[in-house]
Amino acid sequence: MSTTAGIADDLIRARAVLLNPGPGQRRLAAEPLRGALVDLHDFWLASRAATIGMTEGVALVAVGALGRRELVPYSDLDLVMVHDRRPDADRLAEAMWYPLWDAGIGLDHSVRTPGQVVQVAATDLRAALGLLEARHLAGEKALFDKVNSAVRQSWRAGIRSRFDELVEMTNGRWERNGDVAHRVEPNLKDGRGGLRDVYLLDALAAAQLIDRAGPDVAAARLLLLNVRTELHRLAGRARDVLRAQDADDIAALLELGDRFDLARALSGAARTVAYAVDVGLRAARSALPRRGLAALRRAPVRRPLDEGVVEHNGEVSLARDAAAAKDPALVLRVAATAARTGLPIAAGTLTRLADTAPELRMPWPRAAVVELLSLLGCGRPLVDVVEALDRGGLWGRLFPEWGAVRDMPPRDRAHVWTVDRHLVETCAQAARLTTLVARPDLLLLGALLHDIGKGRDEDHSVVGEGLGRQVGRRLGLPERDVATLAAMVRHHLLLPDTATRRDLEDGATVTRVVETLGGDPQLLELLHALAQADSLATGPGVWSPWKRTLIDELVERCRAAMTGEPIRLPEPLDEVRRELAGRAASTGRPQITLRVASGSGDASGTGGGEVGPDEPTVVLVALPDRPGSLSLAAGVLALHSLEVHVADLRSHQGIAVDTFGVSPRFGRMPDPAVLRDDLARVLDGTLDLTEALARKERDYARPAGLEERVRPRVLWFDDEATGAVVLELRGSDRIGLLHRIAAALESCGADVRWAKVETLGSSVVDSFCLVEVDGQSSLPRPVRRRIEQAVLAAATS
Q1: Average pLDDT over all residues of the chain
Q2: Are residues 561 and 620 in the same domain?
Q3: Which of 35, 380, 485, 787 could be disulfide-bonded to 472 (CB atoms 3.0-4.6 Å)?
């Protein structure tokens, strides 16, 4: 047993009281809590240092959160013991570290001489950034001052040779962790616009390359720290990613309303920090000390880029003779030039434009519209340019409607961006599709505005239609184009919703879409491209191969109907399916065939590897038609990690013939013979499907604390065009969910004609066409209530 056991017990007890005060004790707010934690640890560490004789020739130094006096509840302690070659340094270190280890306190530590500290700071960039935050805790203050001064001098002297490494490290961190602003679940510490970026600004200021950050960054820093403090306290452990399910509690603790108010505040704070870092890095690079021949070079020249726009020192700036007050298109010309060249807009230029640029009158001059379309068509560079304009107050002048969606968090978990960022991301994706449409200008404008109606109580598509019409007229578009733009916003969900939740083999489905679009092929073409751009900008995996296949099929049938061609629908049961049913009937065993979605491939034997992992694949299943056939087949597919996207259910001479559109969750498609054998085992009772799926779900369960469930919800749709009744389940995805829901429907006597499953991140939208229950096709309310209860129970079991 360690001889130091129990030494830090008083520290642990005091920390516990601060974090979880007892009845009648005051709960400290986030900022006072950090101060109390710093004071507590400072006192204990100083007392311990005095007890073990840490006085002359040695100093205890705090770096990291304790060094900054920003200790959040479960931060590690970062400590350095600096000694002037004391022979008992190791003994002192052990006497200091071991009580903390025994108490279970996270500790990063080192023991170094002054020369070693300076050497580490000169060779290890991460260590250097930490040492810039060093603070004396105990021991010889003069020794600390000497080392601290040497580290800071080394940082200033070496910044020119280390700046590129600093930028590369920062970009790598951003790439790994994404943005704090606009993200649904941001990394408060390491994300772009997070706390590490605030510390980066401090480091640049310590190198005397930029001034200390202003009050806006200080306010953003405080909010980020407060949220991180409450996140640690709520989680009971170190955590830097703010999850959606924690946001309401943290918002209440910080008196910021609900999670949407918190998300807006965080996004605004992170945008402030990110913009300050962007400007700071550019200013720092310009301020780097020059040596040798570089010191003799002339100042950078101003290279003309466009009318009134020049490049100066790697930034887009206004020409000296640019008359912003007399040139209504200048703001957009600067923006389009920046996006086209990939150069940032100079901060001074944004300020000058904000102070002098005139309001664009309605209708906009043609030159301004041309520059706007040039900006929107630049793709990825558009994102940073719009962010810069918005930070400078210029984007809101161009589009006053933007204020309602700025920093607005999405209300469904499939979206990874705030609404305003999603609109810009969609426009960037649409820029890649402009060659596929006859009117690329309308595609770009529709992408920019498709969700502009969010943030109101009404249907955002309906509200957006009016706003789209308003923007179109402000731009001076012809009235026909205004109507098309408004219709794009109004119906931007029509194709994906229909393709993934309706029966495409029913002619009434196609007729309804065609009538909704007024038979306009151009509008159909634009909505087709917009659906892809919107999905790609929503989040990973939303634009799946199966979603693309379904939408393409729907568009092709609608286009044929609009041009007067007959709609060619497939036969109720084609030759391949009839032959498969025949084999199942003659052998008395289930039959399974794999095909690529186009039907050009077949892997009915043992060659399941012929179907690639990224190809939309069809699984044809034939087995005796009996209650439970859908749930059994779906369960076997889930057992082999196949994600079902669509299911079509038919019968032929007493044989159920089910068609499943699938894709593997990982790896390649399984051997169809293995699927067939497992299904046969399930049918003869030698394989307990329920237990096998439960075991698989346990094996692949997410780690404790990461499993997130949402309350499932059932919606009913009565399709007047087709007469079908569609049940839609929205909830959390899980292994074997389709099997469970199908079993619940079958237990209620529901006859399922088809099923479609749309996976959106960790959520699903499952649609089931129910054609008859106990001989009644309309599904009266009591029957629906019984079905709904069974489905909800299955989704939560």
Answers
A1: 87
A2: no
A3: 485
